[in-house]
Every structure is written in structure tokens, then in C-alpha cells.
Amino acid sequence: MIGRIAGTILHRAMDHVLIDVRGVGYIVHVSTRTASSLPPVGEACALYTDLLVREDLLQLFGFPTLLEKEWHRLLTSVQGIGAKASLAILGTLGPEGLGRALALGDASAIKAAPGVGPKLAQRVVMELKDKAPTVMAMGGTLTVDTAPSDEGIETAPKPRIRPAPAATPKVNFTAEALSALTNLGYNPSEAASAVAQAAENPEATDTAKLIRAALRLLAPKD
């Protein structure tokens, strides 16, 4: 399986990108969110990929992080959610927004994705709510190296661990808080829901504060 592709962008569209790898052009389907974040034509690009194989079709789907690729795999395990529906959901919510929607059981957020109706959105929530904490705990620090010298196709991804961008600090806080709560013995699904709610508090600016806010939500109510 092609797990990662790196090369030079030849063409960009809202739902796919054409990447030149040593003289061969590969069409990689992406979400609108990913498409808007890609560099201009002529610059280097690297994406983790998932290969869809059918009798009459081969399609590559691209993701900027391994975390997002894992969300894609989880989404496509739901009956009725194909690769394009998965990209629509990820393009609308992003990996963090999807994790929050699943943890909170918010089917309306998933329904906001183009082509996803209320019944399908509810099915996604019902089937993935208990599985979501595992992916949420992976965090958001896995990225690809877009250096031109790394140009090529790999059958196994080689993630680099880097500090999370300053613009999205709660990605790591969420993963760390969820891990801490599950280590304390809380049910992963309940912990994920509490962390997702607590993350909306503007005062939860680091892992410790996020944990405290989540613990308050998990505390027995009189």
C-alpha cells in the first residue's frame, strides 16, 4: 500500500491535488480543508495516503497528518461512509472537531458535512463514540516532512514528532488530559466527553487546567 507521497505540486483543485514524483503525476483526493492548506503550484508537498482499490478503480486519498488518516480509517468503517463522505466530514470539522463531536454525541455537527444526512450522522455517532477516545489520545503532533530531498513514495509512513503549532495548543492538551483521566480509571468514553466540554472553556489554557475542568464535570452530582 502507498502510505505516503512527496513531490512537487503540478495542479491544485478544491478536492484533489496533482503531485509530480520524479516525472510521474499522482492524483491525490483531499478534503477542502486540506486543499486550502496546501502550498502553491510548483512547491514541495507531502501527504500521508490511503489507497482505495476496486476492480475498476484505484484512488489515493491524502492527509496532512497520521492523526487525520486514522480518523479517515475510522469513519470509513461505518456502513454508508465512503472515502468521499469521510473527506467531507473531515473537511467540515477537522480532526479535532470530529473528535469533539463524537465525544459529545453531537450528530448535528457531523450532519453539517455535505452529503451527510441526519440518519447517517447519527449512525456515525452511535458506532464511533466508544472508539473515538483511542484516536483522540494520539494527539496532533504527527506531521509530514515536506523537504524536496525527501521526494518519493513510501510504503510505510515515517512520522516526525514535532511540537504542536502555537495556533492549536489544545490539540495536545486534549490528548494529554484524556490519557491522564483514563489512567485515573475513568471510562474512556466519559473522559473524552468531559475533556471535549472542558476544552471549550477559555480558561483551560494548559493540560493541568483542562484536567481540572474535566474532573469537575466528571464529579458526582449531588
Folded structure, characterized:
- The protein has 222 residues and is an alpha+beta fold.
- It folds into three domains: 1-64, OB fold (Dihydrolipoamide Acetyltransferase, E2P) (Beta Barrel), CATH 2.40.50.140; 66-136, 5' to 3' exonuclease, C-terminal subdomain (DNA polymerase, domain 1, Orthogonal Bundle), CATH 1.10.150; 170-218, Orthogonal Bundle (Helicase, Ruva Protein, domain 3).
- Helices cover 43% and strands 21% of the residues.
- The chain is built from nine helices and eight strands.
- It has helices at 32-37, 66-75, 83-104, 107-111, 118-128, 132-136, 170-183, 188-198, 207-218, and strands at residues 4-12, 16-21, 24-29, 44-54, 57-63, 142-143, 152-154, 160-161.
- The strands form two sheets. A five-stranded mixed β-barrel has the order 1-2-3-5-4.
- A hairpin with a 2-residue loop joins strand 4 (44-54) and strand 5 (57-63).
- The longest helix has 22 residues, at 83-104.
- The chain starts with a strand and ends with a helix.
- Residues 140-149 and 156-170 have low confidence and may be disordered.
- Belongs to the RuvA family.
- It comes from Paenirhodobacter hankyongi.
- Residues 174-219 form the Holliday junction DNA helicase RuvA C-terminal domain.
